[in-house]
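Trying the structure run again after the queue cleared.
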Amino acid sequence: MVTLTATAPIEGDPVKFQIKKTSNNQYRFNLVASNGQVLATSETYVQKASAVGAIESIKKNVTTAATEDLTAN
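Done. Tokens:
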């Protein structure tokens, strides 16, 4: 399971994934808008291949992702 902490997206902006190495030699990725705003940050991964796999899974499944509003009373 990929856990993303997301901020409000900017509609219409193309986005990209950026993989980064953490200070403890693990990996995480950000989903970044064309203006440089970080839209989402992943959990950390021990292996870079796991981070890449999570990105590929998101790319494959995002078009069918539902939105669940947990703020309703």
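The chain has one helix and four strands. Worth checking whether this holds up in the mutant runs.
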